Amino acid sequence: MFEKVVMATDFTPGGEKLFNCLGELKAVGTKEIILTWVMEIRYSGGPSGSLQKQHRQKLAEKTKEIEKMGFKASYEAPIGFPAREINTVAEKVDASLIVIASRGKNRVRDFFLGSTTSTMIRQTKTPTLIERIELIESLGEKDCQLVCSRKFDSILMPTDFSTAAEEAEKVVSGLAKHAGKIVLASVVEEGESEEEIEELRKKASRQLEELGESCRKSCPEVKIRIETGIPSKHIKTIAEEEDITLIVQGMRGKGGVEGLVLGSTAETVARTSARPVLLVPAKI
Predict the structure, then answer these.
(1) 137 with 198, same domain?
(2) pLDDT value at position 142?
(3) Which of 2, 90, 139, 210 lies 20 to 30 angstroms, CA to CA, from 193?
């Protein structure tokens, strides 16, 4: 799974921490890494030749380090608008995954999506892993670190059983053999009556049990959670209660030049989760 990965970096302290997840990616089947560092157009004429040379030299050095870890590795150094160029690279190389970082905003570990990440996931046709980077302070020194260093250990997959969720379900089935626990969840939104809500909960439970059967063949612990209310809020609560290390979320496709629309739940989860989020686009 995820044999060919585009890793988007900018070599900032936070971006550098992405390389710490290479071992995990290798464990789930990644064989090839394409480092991608976009030289953003900030002014007319683009970056100077000397800056481009430094840019490529740093990428080449890091590529050699990654090769020593047993990966096939290469790099791309496009010039342009980062979100667009990252997606272009992923499509060009037929990547199975994009990895990109988001950073913590304050001490309570709120997270935000930078403009590049936010724009990229709205346009992408490639599954995208949003790694969470937090700033920690110890003995007066500040450093960045990944929020989850073993992100495939405990997986949460919220689903509404729509076509947008089907590809996410396939991804979770593929990751099941690497996980110690999988939590399958569905949040029933408020209905017209208690009877209607109860019927919806029963139906969701049956569907989740069917999904759970395939996961139980490979994963030692599979849990079912049915909640009622606002999906994004319950997803966050479940992630905290179950000590989740990765949320796998489907997102719906719109097609044409407009690209992908996340939908309110997927977008809120991607924007506010304190844990890594793997967004899986629906097939268009």
Answers:
(1) no
(2) 47
(3) 210
How far apart (Å, rounded) are the C-alpha atoms in residues 64 and 191? Answer: 57
Cβ atoms of 151 and 245 within 8 Å: the answer is yes
Confidence band, pLDDT 50/70/90 cuts, at residue 41 = confident
Residue 250's H or E segment, with its range, is: strand 246-251
Q: Taking the CA atoms of the chain, what radius of gyration do you get in angstroms?
A: 20
Cα four-point dihedral sign 267, 134, 52, 77: negative
H or E stretch covering 187 = strand 181-188
Q: How does pLDDT run across 243-253, given as a tens digit for each residue?
A: 999 999 998 74
Give the domain extent around 256. 154-281
**Same-domain pairing of 89 and 195:** no
Do 139 and 164 reside in the same domain of the chain? no
More confident residue, 55 or 8: 8
Q: Tell me how many domains the chain contains.
A: 2
Structure confidence by residue, pLDDT tens digits, 119-156: 888 888 999 999 887 655 544 444 445 555 688 999 99
SS3 annotation, 95-163: CCEEEEEEEECCCCCCEECCHHHHHHHHHCCCCEEEEEEEEEEECCEEEEEECCCCCCCEEEEECCCCH
Domain end point (choices 110, 129, 146): 146
